[in-house]
Amino acid sequence: xxxxxxFLKDYSGVIPDFQEYLxxxxxxxxxxxxxxxxxxxxxxxKNLLARDGIISExxxxxxxxxxKKQDPSRQLLAYYLGLIYPQALxxxxxxxxxxxxxxxxxxxLCAAPGGKSTHMAQLMRDMGLxxxxxxxLGRLTALMANIKRLGITNTIVTQARGEHYTSNIQFDKxxxxxxxxxxxxxxxxxxxxxxxxxxxxxxxxxIQKALILRAFDLLRxxxxxxxxxxxxxxxxxxxxxxxxxxxxxxEITHWEPPVTWSPGIDKFRKQEYDSRVRLARRFYPxxxxxxxxxxxxxxxx
Length: 301
Ligand SMILES: C[S@@+](CC[C@H](N)C(=O)[O-])C[C@H]1O[C@@H](n2cnc3c(N)ncnc32)[C@H](O)[C@@H]1O
What we know:
Blueprint: H1 3-11, H2 18-24, E1 31-35, H3 42-51, E2 55-58, E3 64-69, H4 77-80, E4 84-86, H5 93-98, E5 105-108, H6 115-123, E6 129-134, H7 137-150, E7 155-159, E8 171-177, E9 187-188, E10 194-195, H8 204-217, E11 219-229, H9 238-247, E12 250-253, E13 262-263, E14 267-268, E15 271-272, E16 281-283, H10 285-288, E17 293-300
Parallel strand pairs: 5-6, 5-8, 6-7, 8-11
Antiparallel strand pairs: 1-3, 1-4, 2-3, 9-10, 11-17, 12-17, 13-16, 14-15, 16-17
The structure holds S-adenosylmethionine.
């Protein structure tokens, strides 16, 4: 069976308002700009964008604008000046759940190209410490360019496989924005083709399990960690949380998102997971008008 058909078969009973979901896949993904409040203010950027003929609207996230109308051929001055970072609304949620503060030591284990690392540095007012790690050198180049463009100085960049990451310090907060199958990004183009479908033989749940375990071990006692993906796949989400709960003294904690969410799934096909995975948050594209996402806020007991 075609991978998309098999996805539809498995998830038609899981995704709320499934017909609405299918219709939404045919619409273009809405565009958002995160405003870099280290360099500028919301009002200044709105003015600058309006001068370039861009119509924007406030969102439920104070530093994020929804772009209603933009000429895609236009090179934006605000971008080159490091005043904006194009970022999906749902991609901001893991950082809000982690809520890094000005004195925190934060590790971002899978950081490139830096949407979440730079958002964290912004919320930390460029204080404390962010260690932004990624496995892939090419993607780290983009990460470093973004850090420079946005004028961030509190971030160190490292290259390592997250599952083998070594550190002399333990972190107050850790983000694992794991490599995933990216089902939350799916779109259907006018020719009926599925866009953003990744087909590979990599055993993603195995990598994700190794990453979440290592991240947990790098966390200080009572530290907070967020595990997130942009997939709706249960094995890569609740399956990975279930594994962590079996292996370590971890607790998933309540977090109230500013957008519509659904609870984690503890029964899928013939599999039953630890019921605590229901405390995770699922974000469906047609409900949040953005990429589909999953996250769990976890504390080390
Ligand atoms: C979902 S993307 C991260 C996006 C990033 N957090 C952001 O907000 O811009 C996942 C990243 O994990 C990296 N990656 C894949 N396998 C990894 C591993 N074993 N250890 C660390 N990073 C890995 C990929 O290179 C990719 O950049």
